Amino acid sequence: MTGHGFVFVASSLDSIILVLAGIALVFAGIDAAKIITGFILAIVLAIGLYTVGSSLGIIVAIVLGFLGFVIGLTVGFALFKAAVSLVGGFLLADVIVSVFSIRPPSGLAVFILGIVLAAALYVVAEYIIAAAVVASGSIIAYAGLSYWLPASVAAIAALALFIAGLAHNWSKITRREES
After folding, report:
1. For the chain, what is the domain count?
2. For residues 118 and 154, is the Cβ–Cβ distance under 8 A?
């Protein structure tokens, strides 16, 4: 046991939890991101509708809050790729207009560029997000592995996990697109 890992990995139990969580995240990949996005939107809509309904009574507030949660979870999961692509496209359009000092920054030009970029991102969004989630999971696993293994060995294991997770997630995405 090397015990030289990350500062927040204080025990072997911590390291085991991190390794297992990292592996789970690596192989859940894009699905984990969709679920998290769905829950975030569900919570936001539940709170918003509960607040709106609170002026109409507690029962109405609870019912509206529950409906908001269900709707948010469904929409957040189902429209994940579109939402991420639109947000990314418009933010990227704004960055491009800003970096290249396009003056005056026409709202219509940013909008059109945003739509074009969103369409391009829509094609590759799941692959990029899957890679980011797999990388995060691999880093988490590395943190746990580095408690037990020398840093170089833990890094090789994390890299192997990253490659396996990326292959798994990208093939899952490709199968979905083909069906």
Report:
1. 1
2. no
